[in-house]
Sequence to fold (201 residues):
Amino acid sequence: MASVLVASIASAGLVGYGFARYPGMVAGAGTWLALATFATLLAAFVVVAGVTTRQSPIGVTGLVSGCVLAVVWIVFGGVALSTRSTTSTALLLILPLASIAVGVVGARRGHTRTAGRRAALVSAVVAALAVFLVLATDTLITGGRPYDAGQLQDFATSGYPDMATYAVSDNLGTAMALLLLMSVMTAVLGSAGASLAGRRP
Fold:
């Protein structure tokens, strides 16, 4: 699936630019381990998307569903994290429900549970990459601003040369972790939705 390949290359490019712009982010063996894990995950995304959509029309469904999921994560997740109220936190329930809905829609459109699971896998990859690209781009453009209280406190003992380097490193690390967690959660819940709604082949 060409879009996943392009998004993966763009993601790697953004991280590469980040390290070129802020070389102080290299903080030992842990940095290289994180980068190796990130590269492995991107390669796995490309393989999963390629195998899942091979000789199958499910790619379009997965692409559209993944983009919708990315918007849901960015909008509702952003609102919940920025306001931190009880009502806004409840909005986070929309995230797993949206993932389940992807599997349901995929199973209904493909008339099988297998089609629903494939749609869930593709949408998980697309959504995770889209959210990562948005977060990483925003971090690199703003230099990690605005700095929150936790970052300001932790910077003093971090060993990083300046606040911007620490903030960019922290935000990119969070985006990488979210890339993994979001893709796994979306795929699992989407597959569960497909199992509930689909019809066996």
User: Anything to note?
Assistant: The chain has a mean pLDDT of 86. The chain has one domain: 2-197.
